[in-house]
Amino acid sequence: MSVASPSAPARPTPPGPPAPGAHVRRKRRSSTSSGLVPYALALPALFLLFALLGYPMVRMVVLSFQNMRLRELFAGLTPPWVGLDNYTKVLTDSVFWTVALRTTVFTVVSVALTVTIGLAVAMLMRRVAPSIRIAMIVVMMFVWAMPQLVATQIFRWLVDADFGVINYLLTLIGLDYESHSWFAEPLEGWAVITSLVVWAGIPFIAITLNAGLTQVPKELIEAATVDGASPWQAFRNITLPILKQLIVIVTTLSAIWNFGLFTQPWVIRDGRPSSDYQTLATYAYSTAFKTNNYSLGSAISVITVILLAAVMVFYIRQMFKIGDVD
Amino acid sequence: MTSTEAPAAVPAKTSSAGRKPDTKREVNAFSSLAHIALFVWALATAGPLIWVVLSSFKNNTEIFLGQPFGLPSSFSFQSYLDAWTTAHVGQYFLNSVFVVVLSTAGTMLLGSMAAYVLARYRFPGNRAIYYLFVSGLAFPTFMALVPLFFILKSFGLINTFTGLILVYIAYSLPFTVFFMAAFFKTLPMEIEEAATMDGASHTRKFFQIMVPMAKSGLVSITIFNIVGQWNQYLLPVAIMQGAGADSKWVLTQGIANISTSAGYQAQWSTLFAALTLSILPMIIVYAIFQRQIQAGLTAGAVK
Q: What is the dihedral of CA A29, A31, A36, A42, to 10 degrees?
């Protein structure tokens, strides 16, 4: 916004020195309308956002300070205020901390894998022939466009103990995986869920970073290679700096999405994830809706959002700044 | 991104003429490595997809035969017919198309108007509104379900397409506004100023000048929204409930219903057919917008 936007001088009393050029003429028209037009254009979107996203968010926060149970829900009574009770209950519960730690570890591992592999795939896309590149993009569009629910169903079938392809293939190469259950051992189960999330997350990142890579001038890499730079040096000192902003954006978005992981563990465990498969999202949801403890569930969600914001504050700020181009 | 272009110009002048055969061999080694990587990638990405499509042509017995990559005995479209009619996937498919078309259009209209204003106009509260939109990115959808349900209920919008569409729009706005605001900021000011001088109204400027100029950005975000809304599962589950809701379900609900209905007894081939059908619209969208997607992604990337 360093360049004065066209509407700025049209305000009733234009502050500062008048910009050069035709501003005199512009000032003449619509000095009244332009003041309201921005609001008018933004209003419908704002209204929807407030009604359907802002208000529920406020309700969620309010709810976390109350004690809403099934009775209040159906009778429409105002639930009793309990202050910080829900928060102390959650924060002193070791189950919550286990779940929080698990969610964090999952997020770090899955985001690191997704971004690294996504970047590798994007680099690969620059190397192959255009026709193959298009084929790659089409296949990845498939994966990207696939509903999480569908992808989860597919993976559930791939690792099915009796009829799954994975067990079939592993048995075929001589390993003892006949009727092997992938979810008996939480670590293995999480490996499956992580693969699923990474598999589904790569296309978005690869396609975006591939677009970014087209901005890396070929001559620059060539020149560096001629001057004796190793491919790794060329990558580190030329490609990465150019991609940096994009990487910050996709990393931040992936982290936000993966931290809120819900559908995959939920569906792959048939809507009844055992305590080993809870994430903060499913934990909050189960608490709220399965045990009808809406307030406790809300408190968990509020803490989740705060945790996310605290961990991500640096990246989120970076992302905001990038969105704020000057 | 101007800052990143600056260093590019300088060393690019160094001649790249003296390429030795040595580098050539290195490149070859690389490309064979690339081929291996490509193969692994194809196996990992396309493998599950091929398996689904193959299974969709099989009948139930063949699916459990223990030859997951064996070809079906005959390529019958029976499971697709079953899915389309018996499992009502046809109905759900059309419902999904209807909802996504309207909600994506709404999202793009409202979102780009708001983004345009936030990017191009200076007015009190501009920053506050921008951050309000963007903070919606971090909001966990699943927790909004209860309050959301009651708001919609009080407006009589539960179990209506209108309700679902409005909710989809609201939940797609944060990303749309974030991305489009960044995009609008990069467009040159001069044309817009010229239009203002010629007396174009604000709405006219927006629809006839800014929108065409922002076309590539708009297309890529449109795709993003279509994909995102087509994929929704949690929101429709919460909203499309009540009497007669199952005729208004969207595709994801229909698929979930097939797979939860009856364990191993279910028509799994129907499920696989439905899974394949759910991806189909994306191919069509992609085929239509292929060029713009490429351009849009590139443009969006450099801002």
A: 50
Q: Are B49 and A33 within 8 A, CB to CB?
A: no
For B133, half-sphere exposure in the C-beta direction (CA atoms, 13 angstrom radius) is 33
- State the residue for tokens 């993976």: A155
- Report yes or no: A141 and B282 within 8 Å, Cβ to Cβ: yes
Considering CB atoms only, which of B15, B45, B297 is closest to A143?
B45
Nearest to A247 by CA among A183, A193, A322, A197: A322
**What is the ipTM score, two decimals?**
0.72
- Residue B263, sorted as left (phi over 0), alpha (psi -120 to 50) or beta, turns out to be left
Q: Which domains does chain A have, with CATH numbers?
A: 93-323 (1.10.3720.10)
> Coil, strand or helix: which one is B159?
coil
**A45 close to B113: Cβ distance less than 8 angstroms:** yes
What integer pLDDT is reported at residue B7 of this predicted model? 38
C-alpha distance from A207 to closest chain B C-alpha (Å):
8
Q: Can you say how many angstroms the Cα of residue B177 is from the centroid of all Cα atoms in its chain?
A: 15
Q: How far apart are CA B170 and CA A33, in angstroms?
A: 27
Contact A25 B52 (CB under 8 A): no
Q: Confidence class of residue B31 from pLDDT cuts 50, 70 and 90?
A: low
- For chain B, the structural domain boundaries read 78-302
Q: What is the DSSP letter of A312?
A: H
> CA B243 to CA A171: how far, in whole Å?
48
pLDDT tens sequence across B148-205: 887 888 888 888 899 999 999 999 998 899 888 888 888 888 888 888 888 888 778 8
Test mutation, A64, A150, A300, chain B, max B CBs within 10 A: A150
Nearest to B140 among A39, A226, A305 (CB): A305
Q: Which of B237, B251, B239 is nearest to B281 (CA)?
A: B251
The string over B229-251, giving b where at least 16 C-beta atoms fall within 10 Å of a residue's C-beta and e elsewhere, is bbbbbbbbbbbbeeeeeeebbbb
- Asked if residue B129 lies in contact with residue B111, where contact means CB atoms within 8 angstroms, the answer is no
Query: Which chain B residue has the Cα nearest residue A178?
Result: B66
Tokens of A99: 């779940």
Contact B248, B159 (CB under 8 A): yes
Tokens of B159: 């179990």
d(CA A323, CA B16): 36
Rounded Cα distance, B274 and B232, in Å: 16
Mutate to test the interface with A, among B142, B154, B291 (most CBs of A within 10 A): B142
One of 3.30.450.40, 1.20.190.20, 3.90.180.10, 1.10.3720.10 is the CATH number of B78-302, namely 1.10.3720.10
Rounded Cα–Cα distance for residues A143 and A131 (Å): 19
Contact B121 A304 (CB under 8 A): no
